[in-house]
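Changelog-adjacent note: as of this version, every example in the card shows the full chain rather than a window. The one below runs 408 residues end to end.
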Amino acid sequence: MTMYFIKPETAVKVLVINCGSSSIKYQLIDTVSGDIPAKGAVERIGFDDAVFNCQAGACKGVKQTLPVKDHTIAIRRVLDALVKDHQAVDDLSEISAVGHRFVHGGKYFKESVIIDESVLATINKVLDVAPLHNPANLLGIEACLDVMPKTPQVAVFDTAFHSTLPPEAYMYAIPYELYEKLAIRRYGFHGTSHYFVSHRAAEMLERTDDDFKVITCHLGNGGSIDAVKGGKAVETTMGFTPLEGLIMGTRSGDIDAAAVLYIMKLKNMTASEMDSMLNKKSGLLGVSGVSSDMREIVDAAKSGNERAQLAIDMYVHRIRKYIGAYIANLGGLDALVFTAGVGEHETNLRARICENLKFFGVEVDPVKNDAAVGGEHEISIDGASVKVLVIPTNEEGVIAKEAERLCK
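Full-length structure tokens:
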């Protein structure tokens, strides 16, 4: 993934679409100024009581309930809102391109692409590798092609940033023919986020050299960690799917495959039932029994809930373990970055994650850390050999820049 920050002379407005199975989130981004004149979502697509809401621009705070039969109708409502509600454009021809988040590019897509018939045919080959995300992402593309047939459409893949992983990092120790014939390997996700914050860290620290070593922790309801050297990903915690790696809101993260088979046998579970358990009923929710939301789990732990405290302890332990391993594989560390909902806002968890890493040069200043909620911050002690940073991610900005670059 390559981004060019050379600013054109005139504004370039890119509509960024993040499509789910029953929702569409959108942002209209001016890639020159970085302004977001329009932002919002359509939720409960397929129902008579779907919800459209505006979160930026002239109609900020507007919420409307209406019937939305499918994604095409939802896209039409979004486009109508850009002109009439947000008043962000006078005419849809002002939109230079549409950038689509696409979760899994499989073995086929190692960089962003302009969507044409050939790309669509290839995208259809990877729908089943991320069944919760890819089909929904495709629906958004097809809807936009139907409503805006003359506007360039660009697909930006979460997996693309991890195409630089070396074989020893992306291969699984299973029969090699499964890699050759079925492309079973580690792909990694949250790539646009890891790309953005790792490169932003380099800018903040004025490091452009190929030896700059940074570990990026994207900690939200989903979570992953990347090791990045010289701007290129060399390790990542998520695998063939987003299930592997860290403990997440409802995902188990790492688990012995034999334990999965054992549970399936004893409980007579189908593959679909096990998939649902590991992805939707495990993680923080499964351990705590309280919630998948870290804020609610922290509150429960403060009230003496032992399972909530256990969930937090397990969460921190897993993150620390990966950071230590990645420092070893990088051969040192220059910066540690926290981003996404938990990473940006849970000051106590950041402190706990870092407290056993002092011998690596990672040491957090408690005062700086407590004050670092919202915006970019350095929270390491003065003179620390490893800079600890909090950087809000900007995945939509990356998608917009990629669309601008490809459509120049």
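Structural remarks: The first helix runs from residue 71 to 84.
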